[in-house]
Amino acid sequence: MEKGASGRTEVNSQRRKLILDIAARLFAHGGYSATTVRDIADEAGILSGSLYHHFSSKEAIIREILEDYLEGLLANYDVIVEENLSSKDTLYALIKAAFDMIDEQPHAVALYQNEAAFLQTIPGFEFLTSQSGRIEEVWQAQLAQGQAEGDIRASLDPAMAYRFIRDGMWSVVRWYRQDGKYSIDEVREQFILLLRGVLLNDE
Amino acid sequence: MEKGASGRTEVNSQRRKLILDIAARLFAHGGYSATTVRDIADEAGILSGSLYHHFSSKEAIIREILEDYLEGLLANYDVIVEENLSSKDTLYALIKAAFDMIDEQPHAVALYQNEAAFLQTIPGFEFLTSQSGRIEEVWQAQLAQGQAEGDIRASLDPAMAYRFIRDGMWSVVRWYRQDGKYSIDEVREQFILLLRGVLLNDE
Amino acid sequence: MEKGASGRTEVNSQRRKLILDIAARLFAHGGYSATTVRDIADEAGILSGSLYHHFSSKEAIIREILEDYLEGLLANYDVIVEENLSSKDTLYALIKAAFDMIDEQPHAVALYQNEAAFLQTIPGFEFLTSQSGRIEEVWQAQLAQGQAEGDIRASLDPAMAYRFIRDGMWSVVRWYRQDGKYSIDEVREQFILLLRGVLLNDE
Amino acid sequence: MEKGASGRTEVNSQRRKLILDIAARLFAHGGYSATTVRDIADEAGILSGSLYHHFSSKEAIIREILEDYLEGLLANYDVIVEENLSSKDTLYALIKAAFDMIDEQPHAVALYQNEAAFLQTIPGFEFLTSQSGRIEEVWQAQLAQGQAEGDIRASLDPAMAYRFIRDGMWSVVRWYRQDGKYSIDEVREQFILLLRGVLLNDE
DNA sequence: GATGAATGAGCATTCATTCAT
DNA sequence: AATGAATGAATGCTCATTCAT
């Protein structure tokens, strides 16, 4: 009888979740602009107008996808940071969290990579700017501490290093596929290897 | 063939070039799908219908931008490779060529980064696949040779290493701006520093 | 028939009445076409689909509002006419009945003023034509008798005079508000003063 | 070659005028809300999307109709007032101007009567409030002066008298038709007769 | 080369209505 | 009586493209 116990809300939220999943996939593959609400509705097996029973607009759909994604990512980050590991181990954990996201929510990750810059300028999407700022703060704090602890090359500019690492890492979503030949852990290990240096005997 | 006779065509090709520049900028900033031919025509100071005197379609515009871009990039790569430097020096030169592109043709670079994956699937854009394949071959050949020569960490998977490097490097276009605080050379130097290793004392 | 037995129906009819009141107000303010069934349902605190337990369609709602309104107005008129007063006193009484309607049922009056002409052409709204015809007959009979009795200017065309009076009078609903500075009786007195002549010394 | 001499702009403005005329008629008959841009386009013999070559929105169409109407009416009023006739003759002239409008532009008049109250609240339609204010000022000035000169019944409240006259007069558009049995001059004469008093021997 | 008018397909969204629960 | 999900048709509007002038 209660909301929690009743199947009604469950069904409702399952429907919403289904639509969000479909939309994330289509937005990620074809782009937000080029994907129509009919595309989404067709895959959900309903008419396009019926989408509006669940979401107030096409924008509201992508907003919810990105909000959920960033919220989840930052929650993972917060857990990691609260463990108070060394900066190096924290960085390893942050990297693992990112690769796990790529593995588990590739569409949301790709969507964020592709559309965030554009959406950031639109009213109602300010959270993209503030959340990406929080993410950057977490990383840069660890990079700076790593430099202090002697684990991170001191001559690196932390701001630029963060951007290089961030873009190289998250871009994995563009080519990593479950059906590919590498597991996500193998890819992550290669990435960490790369952070230990590509060019040798050169300093 | 002479100046007088070719004047008309010169003007014509100047107009074309102007439109291509405007389109590259607008496509890069707002996305190909979300940018209208009217947006382009407005900035060019003509009506949207008049664009069709210069280009057969909106697709033809982006195709020409990307063809020119990839052709130019590969031409630069060919010059570099033909110099027969050591693999390490060749890689440095390839990196420099890329950063110079980012500096000089940021819109085309950004456009390629953002839209190539989607456009690749469209008839008429097969050149994207073939040219990006050629680019990858150039890099992988040098990475493999670098491993043979002992300049590149042998435990790296060349295919993955290439992707990490490629994505981290070209993504610079997303945040590098002439009005930023770093010169393109400073950014490139930081990038090379990163390739020499972020994480230390760890092997 | 008893309170206990009729409770359900009472509640039912109270609900109906509430919905009719809300609908009349919204239709009067925003127009029938521009008011949605959801607007009505929202104010009634139910979902739009639930309206269809009380009314078979949006049209049925406005039909019932207008039927009730015209029925009530004509009932008042019938009482007045049956009193067999002089034509002048009958006209005064008809005018008072109209102004009281404006005071007590402003939304229904406004709705009838604004939408009747359009709705009259729609199947199912023939009663608008027949009832407005009956209203006109009542007035014109009194105007004609007033001319016979010498109380009404003989040179007036009764058909046109009726229309002028009708429109000037009922349009009061557009600007009369309880929060205005005039009472309904003051407005009515001014209207009667006007019927005694605006322009003087002129015949 | 000049704009004025060229047929291009003429044709353009003829098209616009045709669309405005059609829209005024349809809006007046079916209501602004219930009339679709497809209805208008159909009568103009073009597709609905082509309307947007001439007008930026459906709202822009009704706005232009009403702006033109009020501008024309006030221009007529200004000419009349500048003649400096007696207040009584000025009022006669204002009345004639109104009836001529009803005769010549019945759709615009009806549109204004039916929709102005609603549109007034919408951004971009503030001119309705300001222009109707100017109209009221013209009338009230003459009514007040008429009272001072002894031509208008002194016991009338000028504000209310104006509203009664205005509504009775402009509502003529609802029943006057060229194909009716009265000429516009006959209707006007009856209206003036009414202003000289309906009820007689009664003061 | 460019204009201005138009096309035709499509888009996000709205809305009255239905119906199983 | 009411809900919540869905329908299906329509709505205002956009956009790439065409073409006579």
Short description:
The structure is a homotetramer of 203-residue chains. Chain A has 203 residues and is mainly α. Chain A has 8 helices and no strands.
Oligomer: homotetramer
Q: Please state roughly what percent of the residues of chain A sit in beta strands, choosing from under 5%, 5-15%, 15-25%, 25-35%, 35-45% or over 45%.
A: under 5%
Question: Residue ranges of chain A: pLDDT <50 for 5 or more in a row?
Answer: 1-8
Shape of chain A: elongated
Spatial separation of the terminal alpha carbons of chain A: 70 Å
What does this entry look like structurally?
The structure is a homotetramer of 203-residue chains. By secondary structure, chain A is mainly α. The first copy, chain A, is 68% helix and 0% strand. The first copy, chain A, is built from eight helices and no strands. The first copy, chain A, has helices at residues 7-30, 37-44, 58-82, 87-104, 106-119, 126-149, 158-170, 184-195. In chain A, helix 3 packs parallel to helix 6 (126-149) and helix 4 (87-104) runs antiparallel to helix 6 (126-149). Chain A binds a DNA duplex (21 and 21 nucleotides) through residues 8, 11-12, 15, 36-38, 46-54, 57-58.
